[in-house]
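question for whoever is on the cluster today: can someone run the full assembly for these? three chains, 107 residues total. i dont have access anymore since they changed the login thing
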Amino acid sequence: MIHEQSATERLYTVLASIPRAKVVTYGQLAQLAGMPGRARWVGQVLKQLPSDTTLPWFKVINAQGKISFPPGSDAAERQAQKLRDDGVEVSEHLRIDLRQYQLASLS
DNA sequence: CGACTGACCAGAT
DNA sequence: TATCTGGCCAGTC
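^ ran it for u. tokens below:
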């Protein structure tokens, strides 16, 4: 039975397939999900994920290489810890080196 | 209907 | 490095 995936489903599929110790930016994830230019849409989708989701939401960071939560917030620290557990170096200022950790195939 | 907001982004200054 | 501008667009009021 052929079934067309919705854009949101494609986003989930792509996100779930990100390798260990790799991250993607909102814009990159939008493009990979077939919604180029829709970085904000990605943010909206992630925001409504259930708190107990198994999707690696923490792998999504902004194009500046930083976690998109206010520095010092619980959310930011949670994401930073998850990333470190995944093998990604996160500085005290919530910065990640995209050159080293961003999923390849897009700049 | 307009105004404002957001887990965003790239280019210009 | 920091700001600003315009682009993107679904929600909310």
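summary bc i know u wont read the tokens: The CA atoms of residues 25 and 63 of chain A lie 5 Å apart. The two ends of chain A are 36 Å apart (CA to CA).
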